[in-house]
Amino acid sequence: MDYDKAEQFWIEKDRNAVRMDPEDLSKEIGAFLHSHRVCAFACAAGDFVRCTPLEYTYANGSVYIFSEGGLKFRALRSNPHVCLAVYEDHPQFGKLKGLQISGIAELIEPWSEEYLCLLKIRGIPADSLKNLPSEMYLIKVIPEKFDFLNSDLRQRGFSSRQQLVLK
Predict the structure, then answer these.
(1) Counting beta carbons within 10 angstroms of the beta carbon of residue 31, is it exposed (0 to 12), middle (13 to 18) or buried (19 or more)?
(2) Closest by Cα among 105, 72, 94, 70 to 150
(3) What does pTM read for this prediction?
């Protein structure tokens, strides 16, 4: 297996890609994120790798995830670099839509202003969380890079794969 050749596939293909205006692409990405609710959340540390399906909220340019805990926190303790994938539930050949987000995860302090703001955005009464048997953690993912795949973009004259780098 020629791993180097395989790794270069999209790098080479992207050299001649017809790119969208970054502001327009950002709006497309935002609309896609707002139209979905579940992501695959991937994190790793050393030889430990975890990928978990989680409900998310996209707000203020970041992705927020409430979690009661789990093994993902083993990786997050030492490595804040994460990757999220959001995609269509029932893709059809030639009609693919999906988004990969690379970014930095940080934990939001429970009951902080930002935590309470997310509860409000989600419509979750704070009292309902206070009555749970365990703490609900809030993970904030600050995007650094979006890799957006949308086959429909070809009809508008753009390459179906677009990349938006924020960092």
Answers:
(1) exposed
(2) 94
(3) 0.93
